[in-house]
Every structure is written in structure tokens, then in C-alpha cells.
Specification:
With about 400 residues, this protein is α+β, with helices and mostly antiparallel strands. It has helices at about 30-45, 55-70, 85-105, 110-125, 125-145, 155-160, 165-235, 240-270, 275-285, 305-325, 360-370; strands at about 290-295, 330-335, 340-345, 375-380, 390-399.
């Protein structure tokens, strides 16, 4: 039986709530994007001419400001910009970029077109990105080719035709980003599943330990309490012999519960208990020597199966001693190729039954234990044969 150490909340902290913020995509530092955008703006401010407050200089200054705003807007997170607004913003951006190329007499105004084209591929889906990049190339090339404005005579129209090429880089970056985010989402899902599995394992282990505690403590303490109550009642009669007999039984139950506690500790530490020898010792401790019979070829099952069968036998023998004192009990162990069957049958009581209240968890614990092992258990009175009027528990476990 495998022991799973209880896990604290600090070891398995709860996952972040939805919407608390996505993990950053590796290799995509927003500060790099900001730095490049600011560098383009700074270079443009130093090189684009003329700039002034009237005439052509005013037009160049206004177009420069609009280009700078369109470029710096790249840093706005995608979830804050609806797709239609992004399409409108980038379309206007390439229009003012082409206009700046046609109006400025000199400088690096074409850099705005290049960077916006790259961001088109990053922000829009592939079909729209390619169409808009083609429009950018044709628009910038047309401005230079047809000299639509004062323009920079040193800029060839072919340069304008290449302004849409960076869209390919943007598309590749977007594809990589989506692949990385998909991998991160899969990793987060696997992490959540692992956390859920760990919590389930902890709850399952707590349930198993609760059954073991019930099996060891509830039975033993109930028996000890029964004997001590009997001794207390006998004190009023003055029958010291019977009082001594009751206290002797109580001492015996204490020793037996210590032995059972050792069995539980061994099981929790994954020490393998020999099934047949443990059943024989358990039956002898309960006052039924030579009660174990075996059918089939004996084999050692797994630790989980062994522990389950021993706990069922312990439950059944304890109940037999409590509800049918003096009745003979028999333990049958049957091995087949596919399963192991444990049958405990006790005859009716031959001595007076001392009234007592059980925990009510014995049969429930049996069924839970056997269900975890994929088996079945039945319990009920014996209706025929020499053991008629007694009780039988039968557990069938694969293994």
C-alpha cells in the first residue's frame, strides 16, 4: 500500500484566477518594441525636413506626429484593440506614412512605413495583412513614382515598393507567438490537471487513513470499553474472579490493538505483510486457532490487496467477537487465476451478548476499501447449513 504524504497548501498553491494576467511570451519583451518605436521617432525628428509652423513645414510636422502616434500604438495590448479598430488604425497609418514620404524633402520618413507594415503582419490575420501590405507598397511606390508632392527626389520609387516586405516578418512573429502561447496554455492545463490529481490523491489517502484509524482504534477501544464496563458492573457483585477475567481480556485487547497498530504502521511504510501468516495470527488472536483454510495455489498479492483483505478480516472477526461471543469462526481463503476470495463465517453466539453501540462505519469501510481495489463484498446472515443463524462476510478482489 502506497503512502502519500499529505500535501500542504504552500506546496500546492491554488492556480491564479482566470483573467489575472497571461504569462509573458518568452522572447517578446515589450520594452524592445518600445525602444525600437522611440528610436524611429527620434531618428525621424532629427532627419525629416522641413518642419515648421506654416506651409510645407507644418504639413510635414502634422504628418510626423500622426506617424509617430500610429507607430507608438503598437505597444497597446491586442485584447484592448478590437480587430476592426486595428484594421482602421493600420490603414490610416500606412496612408499618413505614404503622405509623409511624398511631402518631406529629406529624412527617414519611409521608416514609419516599414515598421507599420511589419506590425500589420503581427496584428492582423494573414489574408488581411498581405492585402494591406500590398496596398502600402503600391501607395508608397505610387507617391514616389508619380511625384505626388514635393517629395525627396533622391528616393527611388522601388524603395516605396519594398515598404510592404516587412509584413512577412510580422506574420512569422505572430505565428511563433501563437505557437508559444499554445504551448504555454497546454503547460498550464497540464499543471492544473496535476494539481487536481494531487488534491484527489491527498483526499483519497485521507479516506484510507481514516478507515485504518477506524479499523485499529474503533474496534479495539470498543472492546476494551466493553470489558471495563463489565468489570465495573461486576464489582458490585463482589465476584472478583469475573472482574479479574474481564480486566485480563481488556489487557489482551490492549496488546492486540498495539499489534494491529503495528500492522497499520507497516502498511503505511509499504512493508509487505504475508497474507496467510497474518490471517492465521489474526484468527488465533481472536480465539479461533486452526480456523484458516486455503484453496488453490497460494501467492502473495500486492500490498494494497493484502492490506485490504487483512482489514476486512479484522473487521469481520471483531464483529463476530462482539455480536456472537463464543461462536466458532472460520476463515476461508480461495486463490484463482483472476481473483482472491476471502470468506469469514461465524456461528451463532453461545454466550450472552453484551449490549454495545458500534460506530456504524465497519461495513461502509469494507465496501469503500474493496471498491478501491475493483472488487466486491457481501455481508449477511447464514440461512442454511450447520452455521445457520450466523453471519458471513465475503470479499472478492481481482489479483
Amino acid at each position: 500500500m502506497r503512502y502519500v504524504r499529505p500535501v500542504s497548501a504552500t506546496e500546492f498553491p491554488p492556480p491564479p484566477p482566470p483573467g489575472a494576467g497571461a504569462r509573458p511570451v518568452p522572447g517578446q519583451d515589450p520594452r524592445v518594441q518600445w525602444g525600437l518605436s522611440l528610436a524611429v521617432v527620434a531618428v525621424g525628428a532629427l532627419t525629416i525636413r522641413p518642419m515648421g509652423f506654416s506651409g510645407q513645414g507644418l504639413a510635414v510636422a502634422v504628418l510626423f506626429v500622426l506617424n509617430s502616434a500610429a507607430l507608438l500604438a503598437r505597444a497597446v495590448p491586442e485584447h484592448r484593440v478590437p480587430p476592426r479598430l486595428a484594421l482602421t488604425w493600420l490603414t490610416l497609418g500606412i496612408a499618413v506614412a505614404a503622405a509623409l514620404i511624398g511631402v518631406g524633402d529629406s529624412g527617414t520618413g519611409y521608416l514609419f512605413a516599414y515598421f507599420l507594415a511589419g506590425h500589420i503582419g503581427y496584428r492582423l490575420d494573414t489574408r488581411r495583412a498581405l492585402v494591406l501590405a500590398a496596398v502600402c507598397s503600391l501607395l508608397c511606390a505610387g507617391v514616389l513614382y508619380f511625384h505626388l508632392g514635393p517629395g525627396n527626389p533622391e528616393l527611388p520609387w522601388v524603395l516605396g515598393l519594398t515598404t510592404g516586405v516587412p509584413v512577412v516578418v510580422g506574420i512569422l512573429n505572430r505565428t511563433q507567438r501563437r505557437a508559444v502561447r499554445s504551448a504555454l496554455s497546454a503547460a498550464e492545463a497540464a499543471e492544473r490537471a496535476a494539481r487536481a490529481e494531487a488534491r484527489t490523491a491527498v483526499l483519497t489517502e485521507r479516506g484510507r487513513i481514516a478507515r485504518d484509524v477506524h479499523d485499529v482504534l474503533a474496534h479495539s477501544l470498543a472492546g476494551i470499553n466493553m470489558q471495563l464496563e463489565l468489570a465495573d458492573a461486576l464489582l458490585d457483585t463482589g465476584d472478583l474472579e469475573k472482574v479479574r477475567e474481564a480486566t485480563t481480556k481488556a489487557h489482551g485487547l490492549v496488546k492486540e490493538s498495539l499489534k494491529q497498530a503495528q500492522w497499520t504502521v507497516h502498511a503505511l511504510r509499504e512493508d509487505t505483510l504475508p497474507l496467510l501468516e497474518s490471517l492465521t495470527a489474526m484468527a488465533e488472536s481472536a480465539g479461533h486457532p486452526d480456523a484458516v483454510t486455503v484453496t488453490g495455489t497460494v501467492r502473495e498479492p500486492s500490498a494494497q490487496v493484502t492490506q485490504g483483505l487483512l482489514r476486512i478480516a479484522q473487521e469481520a472477526l471483531t464483529n463476530a467477537a462482539r455480536h456472537a461471543p463464543g461462536g466458532k469462526a472460520e476463515v476461508e481463503l480461495t486463490f484463482t487465476a483472476a481473483s482472491i476470495t476471502l470468506r469469514i463465517r461465524n456461528r451463532p453466539a453461545t454466550r450472552a451478548v453484551t449490549p454495545g453501540v458500534g460506530s456504524g462505519m465497519g461495513l461502509i469501510g469494507m465496501r469503500e476499501r474493496v471498491a478501491l481495489l475493483g472488487g466486491s463484498v457481501t455481508a449477511g446472515p447464514v440461512g442454511e447449513g450447520p452455521d445457520q443463524g450466523g453471519w458471513q462476510v465475503e470479499a472478492v478482489i481481482p489479483g
